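Continuing the series of single-chain predictions for the mutant panel. This is the parent chain; the variants come on the following pages.
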Amino acid sequence: MAIVFVLCIIYPSLIADKSRVYNWVARMLLDQIDFPAAQTQISLIIDKSKSKPEIAEFDRYVGWNLKGKIDLKIPLIITHKDSKADLCLNAVDLFSWGIFRKYEKKGAAWYDVFAGKVRFEDLYLK
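Parent structure:
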């Protein structure tokens, strides 16, 4: 939500296309991961926040980008789960909330707890 707010100010045409922005940001983050190191399979678990057509679009877009970076023999599995039912996604939500608070509410108390663990942080379309 915070990302879309910033984009709305700069690019009003993206207000109605939040799914596209979400996909683009996800791909930018995934570009930071060394996928060629994977040797058996790659399992990408995404918070289920999209409709079925949006999930299909996300899977095609991200899958197409990732498959160009990994060995053809390595299966890529993309699943969408409810974060309430998945402890790993729940943890990611907690860290994401800390980043949101830092930039949108100017409150870095929770962010400062895990700041040393952040590997990639950038503001897009500043």
